[in-house]
Structures are given as structure tokens and as C-alpha cells.
């Protein structure tokens, strides 16, 4: 179990939390409706593959929001304790089709560790 913001003094680059999320295509549909981002690479396999992606990918800002949950939880669940938040997108989160075979499972988006980005301890994920 990870320590919380109150449990430790932080150093720049220190990992503070780790969590895994399952991402389904239905999540992408809901996010598209909320954000207004209906880019077909987030719902059409044909379009995504046609532009060189390995398949339908999750919205970057959706994956950032998942990382934000980890930061908020690490800060005791109080979003007011998060002074700023930023990410670096290093690879797309490819999401399996809704009609995938039972042997395949939803993709897992992993927050590999949330390093501290500044010397005063404001956490920022490196997802």
C-alpha cells in the first residue's frame, strides 16, 4: 500500500503511488459525450488502424483523468490539495473491441508511478 501525502517527505522524482485501471470501449463513448471529442480514432477500429494506430485508443485526457484519481486519492481524497497536475503521454492506451472473444480482456491502463515534479512536493504523474 502506498503512503499518503501526509505520511512522508518527498523528493523530486520519487514514486508516490501506483494503480491499474481497466478501460472499456463503453468508457470511451461516455467520455466522448462528456468532452465533445468524437474523433473516430476513439471509436472506429477502421479509422484508427487506417491512420497507423494499433487499434481504437483511449482519449489522452481520459487517461490523464484516471491518473488524477490516483493523485487525489494519494492526497487524502481532497482535490483541493492538488495545486497543479500534468502528464506526459508516452504511448497510446489501445482498447479491445466490445465484441472481443471471452479470452481477451479489456486493456489495462497503468499509472506506473507518480513522481513528484517539483521540490515543494506537488505530485505530478508520469503516465
From TrEMBL:
A GO molecular function held by the record: fatty acid synthase activity
Organism: Pseudokineococcus marinus
InterPro entries the UniProt entry points to: Fatty_acid_synthase (IPR003965), HotDog_dom_sf (IPR029069), MaoC-like_dom (IPR002539)
GO biological process, one term: fatty acid biosynthetic process
Similarity comment: Belongs to the enoyl-CoA hydratase/isomerase family.
Highest taxon in the source lineage: Bacteria
Domain MaoC-like: 12-94
Name of the protein this chain belongs to: Dehydratase
Organism classification: Bacteria, Bacillati, Actinomycetota, Actinomycetes, Kineosporiales
A GO cellular component annotation in the UniProt record: fatty acid synthase complex
Amino acid at each position: 500500500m502506498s503512503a499518503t501525502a501526509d505520511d512522508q517527505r518527498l523528493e523530486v522524482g520519487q514514486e508516490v503511488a501506483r494503480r491499474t485501471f481497466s478501460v472499456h470501449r463503453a468508457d470511451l463513448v461516455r467520455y466522448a459525450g462528456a468532452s465533445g471529442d468524437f474523433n473516430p480514432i476513439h471509436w472506429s477500429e477502421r479509422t484508427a488502424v487506417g491512420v497507423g494506430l494499433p487499434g481504437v485508443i483511449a482519449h489522452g485526457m481520459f487517461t490523464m483523468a484516471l491518473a488524477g484519481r490516483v493523485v487525489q486519492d494519494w492526497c487524502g481524497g481532497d482535490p483541493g490539495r492538488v495545486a497543479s497536475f500534468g502528464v506526459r503521454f508516452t504511448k497510446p492506451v489501445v482498447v479491445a473491441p466490445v465484441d472481443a472473444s471471452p479470452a481477451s480482456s479489456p486493456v489495462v491502463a497503468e499509472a506506473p508511478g507518480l513522481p513528484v515534479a517539483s521540490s515543494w512536493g506537488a505530485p505530478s504523474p508520469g503516465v
